């Protein structure tokens, strides 16, 4: 009988599909949130979506027995990660409300480059001159998208850039967490903290009426956000990391199309150029990380006598 076990290529293709679906989920979530810009306040959106998402995540965590005692939410690393997640959420939604979705998403794609650099600076991970050069060129691409000091510059681009910094803190903190802490519980802790942020922001803003349409879209937003998280997790567990990781950049295509179709936002030449630089250097950095990892685990050739 033929072997029915999926081969490496099949697993990689499945992993790539999971990653692409996950990125589509994140892009749909961003599109829904941006569509509320003229109707609801930031705090109100974060609070309502957070309540819905927290209920969904809690139900899933209970079902799969991934819940820890609520006292675990006070773990210092979980608290630090939650603060970083709160900051990233507020900063990115603020940027999303005031600038084209494609530009905000393009800037956020510098995260892998920033994370590689931060890991070298703070975790003593070794990176060679090739990756350092790619990181530098990638940040030039970010500047092309932001275009500081010239026509078309938006101060809200700095919010998107600050989002990258907050995400770096979040991801570095996640790396230091004990492997026994379930991913669903970490996601639940982040959702709870972001919900509390929404509640605090709502105290300082005017509460707008929430229509059934708004509520339905918020439920959809929470659902596609979970699809995004699970798509990424399933991708990492299914395919080879070096193969599936570049498919993260598919979110940029989804966001460009969403901006054009939903918001009538058409990227200009500088946005296309900057996005291409960021994506190409990010993919090259991932490729070099894969090469270095492969070299580190390959035993040296035996000496010939």
Can you put this structure into words, describing what you see?
With about 300 residues, the chain is mostly helical. The chain has one domain. It is about 75% helix and about 0% strand. The chain is built from twelve helices and no strands. It has helices spanning about 10-35, 40-65, 75-100, 100-110, 110-120, 130-145, 155-175, 185-200, 210-240, 240-245, 250-260, 270-295. Helix 2 (about 40-65) packs antiparallel against helix 8 (about 185-200). The chain is globular, with a radius of gyration of 20 Å. It starts with 7 loop residues before the first helix and ends in an 8-residue tail after the last helix.
**What is the string of SSEs from the N terminus onward?**
HHHHHHHHHHHH
State the total count of DSSP E strands: 0
Radius of gyration: 20 Å
* Percent helix: over 70%
Q: Quick check: average pLDDT?
A: 87
Please mark out the parts with pLDDT under 50 across 5 or more consecutive residues, or reply none. Answer: none
**Tally of domains:** 1
Number of helical regions: 12
Envelope shape: globular
Q: Could you give the distance between the termini?
A: 46 Å
The protein's oligomeric status is single chain
Structural class: mainly alpha
Q: Tell me about the largest β-sheet.
A: none
